[in-house]
Amino acid sequence: MAKFLNTSATNYYLEELIKGTRQHLIIISPFLKFNDRIKELLADLDRMKIDIRIVYGKSELAPQEINWLRSLEFVRTSFCQHLHAKCYINEQSAIITSMNLYDFSQVNNNEMGVYIERDAEPELYGDAYEEAQRLIRVSEPVRLAADKVEDTPKDIGDPKEYEKITTSNLAKSLGISTSELTEHLIAKGLLVRDGKQFKLTDAGKQVGGEFKFSKRFGPYFIWPRGMQV
Fold first, then answer.
1. What percent of the chain shows pLDDT beyond 90?
2. Are strands 51-56 and 24-28 parallel, antiparallel or unpaired?
C-alpha cells in the first residue's frame, strides 16, 4: 500500500531509496543541484557501478560541482524542457513528491509525497516507472563537460592584469563560445580528452598553456593573452 509522506518522512524515505539501490536509479528533478549528503550517496552508488539517470530542467551547479558530477562514471544526465515533476525511483520503489532534490534535508520547507513499493503496488509503480522512462526518452542527453572547461575563477584576479587568461576569457576575446574554443584547442592538439576530463598536451605547454587548480572552482587552463587558434 502506498504511504503518505510529510517533510521529514520524504527526507528519510528518499535517503533510504538511494542507499537501497542495487540495479538502477532514476532522479527526476527540475533543478540540478546537490547537497553534500546526496553527493555522498550518489558517489557511493557510482563506486558500486550502479546506473544512475538524472533528468533535470535547470542546472544550478557551480563549476566545481560540474567537475564532481563529470567524475562519476555511471551517471548520465538529460535535459527536459518545461520539467516540473519530481520523482525518484529505483528497481524496488518510487517517491513522487513536491520536494526538489536540492531541498533534501531542509526542515524549513513543507513538503508532501507518496512512497510506492513495487511489490505492494505493482500497477502504480509500473505507471510511475513508465512515465519516468518517457521523460528520459524525450529528454536531450547532456555531457556537462561540454558546458565549460572552466569558469573564470575570481581568486586569480582581474584578467586584464595578467599576461595569461582562462579559456573562457580567451574565448570571449576571440568572439566564440568556450565550447567552440575547446574544440579548436583539441583540433590543434593543444588539449586532449581523457575520459570526462581534459589534459594539456606537450604542444599546449609549448604555446604557453598552463594547468591550474582552485579549491573553489576546480581545474582550469590559462593561455597567453591574444593567442590565436
1. 48
2. parallel
Model confidence at 50: pLDDT above 90? yes
Calpha distance 202→223 (Å, rounded) = 14
Q: Cell 503518505 maps to which residue? A: 4
Threshold 0.85, pTM exceeds: no
Q: Return the C-alpha cell found at 127.
A: 505507471
Segment 141-154, tens digit of pLDDT: 876 543 444 444 44
DSSP secondary structure, the chain, as one string = --EEE-HHHHHHHHHHHHHT-SSEEEEE-SEE---HHHHHHHHHHHHTT-EEEEEESEE---HHHHHHHHT-TTEEEEE-TT----EEEESSEEEEES--GGGTT-TTS---EEEEETTT-HHHHHHHHHHHHHHHHHSEEE-GGGT-S----GGG--GGG-SEEEHHHHHHHHTS-HHHHHHHHHHTTSEEEETTEEEE-HHHHHTT-EEEEETTTEEEEEEETT---
Mean pLDDT of 219-226: 86
The CA distance from 87 to 107, in Å, is 19
Higher-pLDDT residue of 85 and 71 is 85
**Contact status, residue 45 vs residue 34, Cβ threshold 8 Å:** no
